[in-house]
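request received
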Amino acid sequence: MNKSRLLKFLIGIALSSIPLLGNEADRLFYEAVRAEANGELRNAVDLYLEASTLGHSANLHGNLANLYFKLEKYGHSVLHYRKALLLRPDDREFATNLSFTQEIAGIQNLGESLTDPAFSASNTWAWVLVLSIIFWGGLTLFAILLPHRLSKTSAWAFLTLWIGLLSFLSWATHQSSEQSYLLNREVIVIQPETARPNIDAQVPLRRFAGDGSSANTKVKPGESLFLDLDDQGAPKSHPNTEGMVWYLLRSLDGKKKGWLKADEFSPILGQLD
Amino acid sequence: MVSWLLFWPIAFLSANIRIESNFEPASITLSSRTNYKIVIHGTQSTPQGTVPQVSGLILSNNPRTFRSASFINGVPSIKTELSFDVRPQREGAFTIPAWQVSVDGKNYPVPSSTLRVLPPNQADIARQKAQQEQEKDLQEAAFLELTTERPFLFKGETTAAKLSLYLWERLPVTKIDQLPQKQGDGFSISELDQPEEKRNVSRGNKIYSVFTWKIGLTGALSGKHTLSFASTIRVRVKGSKNSPFGNPFFSDPFFGFGREQALEIQSNAYDFNVRDLPTQGRPVDFQGAIGSFSATSSIDLDRVSLGDPVRLKFVIQGRGNFSAMPAPTFPESDLFRSGPPAFSFEGNQITKYRGSQSFEYVLTPLTAGLLEVPTMRFSYFDPIKEKYFSSTTSPHPLRVDPGEKWAQPKSEASTEKTELARISTRDLFQTESDPGNWAPSPSIEHPFRSGLFWSLQAAGGLTFGLILFLKARKKDPRRDALLRKEKVLHGKLSNSLKLKDGSSFYQNLKKILRLRIGMACRHDHPAALSTHELIALLHKNNFPAEVCSETENLLEQCDDQEYAASSGSAQSLQVHYQQSTALLKKMKK
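response:
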């Protein structure tokens, strides 16, 4: 009896805290808008980032991206436009601003141009749902109609059409899943806080996981790279003696490859393990 | 009607019973009281009876009872005395007639008695006057008073009012138990804050401590309404109930000692008329503001870059119903985008009657150039002048610089890019003033890790499986026919058992056993097999030896009946029926 009451109490507390989180995030958002109106751009960025620890909204990441653009931190700006577009994929304003920022930062939009938007990661669910409905619907229909209610010709026509549809939908689902898989590995290169303006405009991709290592090549803040995964599916990483973790990354076409420190990039989805 | 029922210990002595009755005193003034006494000599038993009712006299319900025993000149004497409190209602002579009282099951007469009630004398009049003065004193000792500036209110109008609690300095108040509560549905009042306290306030011939609350009084319902207030205070009173002055609070030399008692205080009832607002001359943008106001506006910057926000402050000053005042709407235009305003009120936060209300809008210019922040109009109703007024702010010039020269990204071959290129640069990098919908994470959950996906698959699979199962069940007509046949035979078997028809019983039993063996061993024609062949078939299909032997016994019984016509008793039919039922069940398994 006491346990059930305690459980109800805890559930009540948990449920009542959900709107409170929303209110707190709202409050921080509005404070950030005011700070921006007062010209306190750094303060506004901090407030938006604090709000993003409580929840995510397309407008929050859009505003944050705008602020980073004004602060000429193009890597961060691209990162947050990408997040905003994940939350609202059909927002043309975000897409235009992202495109513009990438151009200002001198980045080629390679990853996005390779795939049709219909097979993007955000459409995976739609493809999976349609595939499931067609698969089970077709099987059920077959079971009902066969063997007496369907002529041989009609059955073959039905079967051909069904298999054709299933093949296409499976391929589309696979394409979309691949994009989703890539998105999970995708990171955006950012300028670390310790970077020297004008000198460290580009971030080196090192041959080995260490500051002293020479660079294979350099990448611009805002560029997309993809984490290399090990056999267990975890990012290939190497912690150094100072506690800094290095990650192995490569570009989508595989031409650029090297090690980056954890503060030199940020994943588009969530956090690094 | 006055009645009583008393139980006492049995009298220890009895004698001849004699009853007397009289009023003591027998003659009183109208404002006095007397006692109606009944003395029953010779018993201490409980008397029973009902005193007759007399118009103009009120007798107490519970009489006081006295019992006594004594020796008078060596003779023991016992008596019981009943005494009723009597209060007259008018002057005149009143007689309680003779009536019967029952003692130990015997009735005895109670003689009649007469009371004379005289007009009140000077002492009575003086006592009445003193009592009235004391009641007046009690009312004057603590009371609530409401003061307002307005003789009537308009519906929705808020006026400043003062609610004062007067406490006579001699009244030993220990605390205010309950703050004044409004009584009356036609009005709403603001929350009660800390009261202002004033001491030594003279009113009439008394000195008071006065606690005053400033409240905002708002007319809620139109029509004539009564408004009053009630409060409860706690005072210390003397312990004795028998105060010679009849008032527990006053004239007590030991004021301040004794028990605490709650004292309810009621204000006078104030009649107010709440009028509806006139419809004539009401501006379209009137949103319910009632009072006397003036509106001003200002912007924090007069020059900004495109996309940078500007703060517009709209201030309403004066007195009126600030608590019910909605934010004025910023006029929609292609030049500015505005978000919901922030509110702030300066003044008494409780009453919100007098002060200034600020609304701060964050405006985002949508185009570059020399723009003008548009005027804002605020309409209100002045309850003193009984007219509608509008206050309009002045426009504010604002220079919006185009900012950085942002070039459009190079257009590519795709249709989407062409569409993007059409978007004006003025829409770029606009700060959104509203967060929109919140999501716990920007990530997309993979379907394979989602419960919904697997639920969908399970639902599809189950539907498909169910249809297959239903179809498969329908497909064995031969088995269905055999089952039907077995059912019919079973009916016949039961019937022959009831009729004790041995011949029919064993015929049907043999048929059922053959049918069941055929079904169990998948033999198409079991009727063509002999008993030995049937048993061999059972052995071949690995049926237990027990089943085989039981089957053989039963079949032999059937053969005996068929070929040897041995007579089966009713008892043996019943036994064979039970055996066959158990056996058929085993074969089914």
